[in-house]
Amino acid sequence: MHGRRLATTDRLLVLSSPDSDEELARIHAWGEDRDIDVAVVDIGDSIDDAYDPDEPTLGITLGGDGTFLEGIKEFTRHGVPQLGINAGTLSFLARVESADIEAALDEVIRGRARVDTRQKLHATSGGLDTTGINEVTIEHVPPENPFDRKVTRLDVFADDEYVGQYEGTGVAVSTPTGSTGLSLSAGGPVHLPADNHSLQIVPLHTHRLGVRPLVMDASAEIEIVTRGQASLLVDGGRSHKILSENTVVRITGADERAHVVRTSYDDQFMTAITKKLGWGIRDEGDGPRELLQEEIPPKQQTLIEHAREVAIEAAQSVGDPLRELHGRVEEITYKSDKADIVTEADHQANRIITTVIENEFPTHSIFSEESEAVEGDSEYRWVIDPVDGTGNFAHGNPQYSVSIGLLESGNPVLGVVYVPETDETFHAIAGRDAYKGDTTIVTTDRDSLDESMLLSGYDPDGSFLTHCYNETQGVRSLGSAALNLCYLANGSADAVWEYDTYPWDVAAGLVIARAAGARITDRFNEEYVIEFDADDRKSLLGSNGPLHPALYGHLEASDLV
After folding, report:
1. What is the topology classification, in CATH, of domain 304-441?
2. Mean pLDDT over residues 480-495, rounded?
């Protein structure tokens, strides 16, 4: 989940521990001032009745680490991102202090927080089937007779490979979130927990000095076989079971992951372990800004560079909701239901993008296909198509995109096109290089029609296909004008023809294609100019540049221009 998506939060769902009345009152007041609904559930109760899947929701835990872990259990089931507020207790996971509640929430709804994904684990054994965010421990059960055996033996397998027999207090299988204390006690590594999808087998008080923690991918299938009675605990006892001899415990990474919201008001991870665990390579007062401020100058950005960063984040932030809705379209057979989902996709994506842009650039105008224009008082105008290729989207076709362009005094200066189903991001600033992700892209250099591949947009009577198919290597129609221009920029095609276009179709793609070396004209072979009030259709002819004379001449001879 992308932090920019949180800008559309409509509801706060607070999981609260006892004695948090003061903090709750402040959260209620904050929400009332911003017309954001606040619902409260007591720790230990289910959030199911209070959760509304139709409202963009931020989960909040108010308490210590126990409350935070309970929130992980409740909010993850619904895919709700979670912010942990430390309500006056010693906490390692909930890292927003009470004094910073309002400031942290302001940062979240401005879309400036970060959302970490946290790996969870899934454990099964007999009648036990549960998930956790920290660890599964399998430990020796203390004997009633003090003279009986006080250690346990556990045989451990990973992906059907025999790891070995652990003899000692027991074994823990931990996620990166739960790795810290146990791993340190066993002489192993501490994992940075954010976006780290792994598991670790940790020996507990082993009787063999050479045994160390073992790290593996979260997809690994771990099996632990008891060779005596043992106690199984998940997340420090949130699930518990006494195991008999020769019981098999199966552990792997859970399919669902937790989404943890982090703000600039959180203690950073390394700061937290310095305070709580006595991390030995820095003093408690040291912070990254204080230590590095003189060595690393602050990042300098022009307005357009900052706008590109924001546009990329805004476009990528709608990827998850669009992919989810696209999957629902693929499962539906009735046209009316599909139309409802397509409308929801357009509106959801548009709201996220426009909210992010309004938060960052309140004086800019916004022109979107899916909403009324927002008139600002600067020379900058954003042009947005939240789902370019809605016909493809409606039929479960992956060829659709998110298009975000920026105009300065009417001239396109920035383009970002994001392809949710392939997770590709095309972007460029006018006068600079064009990129797909971090890789520079350029057009082809072909100048002959018979060597060229063409792309066609709307072709109402098939004239373009009829007159160009046999003269070229073929004509393809993708159904997204923004993608057509990006594939031209990327060298995946040599030219593109659009019978008619709207500003939101091409504002972003124009910048990307031109930055990659393309030539873009209208049907009169004049430079293509974006017009918002044109009465006539606005055709577009784009090529790699060298091909343009031959292509235009052929279209002119065929009476297509």
Report:
1. Fructose-1,6-Bisphosphatase; Chain A, domain 1 (3.30.540)
2. 96
